[in-house]
Amino acid sequence: MTNKFIQSLIENIESFAFHAYWNNFSRKDIDKASNDGSSLMRKLGPISSSHKTATRNIRLAFPNINRAEEAEILDAMWDNLGRLGGELPHLGNFGYFTDNSRVKINGLEILDRYLEAGKGAVFASGHFANWEIMPAVIVQRGIDCQVTYREMNNAKIDKTIIEARAAYGVKLFAPKGREGGMRLMRILARGGSIALMNDQKYNTGIMAPFFGHECMTNDAAIRLAHRFKVPIQTMTVRRTGGAHFEVDVQEPMLLDFEKPLEDIVQTGVNAINQFIENKIREAPEQWFWVHKRWPKQAWIDAGVMGV
């Protein structure tokens, strides 16, 4: 068998498994889907290779944590990620901006500033709780915003997720190369907004401290905000119980547009990292610890490689 055939077979198996899950959880009501997702991941998560990654990351970030506290965070993390997975097919039915909404929003008056024509921003956040809630809130409010994302390796799975998000108004695109960067600039140039996730490793970014250890960090938010003289608008979301959430819209970060970009890019990236770090510390169990955010050397330096 050729490598191409094997790869195609693997992708078809992945797609079959994903769509079996998707169809199953789509038929459940929201609360049952969330609860069942939690039950499943609390069993499967701890036996996955990602559990080791999460454990190392938590020990790096919280060097004084005891094992009981660590186990509590890890179990609650799998609970949250399982709930997120169960909720994905239902995100269009959360009743945003209705009396019986599952999402409470703090700082709505800040968000509404971007309803005015030509008032764009670079939205920046991280993978907190069910992070899909944030772009849904932005677009459901009527803000002209496109959301960047990391394209799935499996095209069939990617297509389903894009279509599901589009059903409740979220426009996604994966910016690749020069054309991707040009598209981001065109959106901001016409007064629109873009949304970026700033808490994952970005190999073409810059080194910046995160929980006291240097890691490659996306600097696009700073560069784009400076070029188009727009604010960096932060948002966070936290799970308040089951499939219920609270979104916080903070006062925006305003750059000194009079200074040359290279004079502020490092301090700007550091500020975003510090903001994300502070929010993680408030609810560590609701962050995406399974991502290899730090380089292996940081694990070595932190003495956590023995996990």
Fold and architecture overview:
By secondary structure, this protein is of the alpha/beta class. It is built from 11 helices and 9 strands. It has helices at 3-26, 30-44, 49-61, 67-87, 108-111, 133-140, 155-167, 177-189, 220-228, 261-282, 296-302; strands at 103-106, 122-125, 145-148, 171-173, 193-197, 206-210, 213-217, 232-241, 244-249. The strands form 2 sheets. Strands 1-9-8-2-5-3-4 form a 7-stranded mixed sheet, sandwiched between helices. A two-stranded antiparallel sheet has the order 6-7. The protein starts with a helix and ends in a 5-residue tail after the last helix. The mean pLDDT is 93.
Summarize the main sheet. Answer: 7 strands, mixed
Gap between N and C termini, in Å? 38 Å
What fraction of residues sit in β-strands? 5-15%
Structural class: alpha/beta
Strand order of the largest sheet: 1-9-8-2-5-3-4
Overall geometric form: globular
| Low-pLDDT segments | none
Specify Rg, calculated over alpha carbons: 20 Å
Which percent bin holds the helix content? 40-55%
List the total number of helices. 11
Helices and strands, in order, run as HHHHEHEHEHEHEEEHEEHH
Give a count of the beta strands, DSSP E runs of length 2 or more.
9
Summed over residues and divided by their number, the pLDDT gives a mean of 93
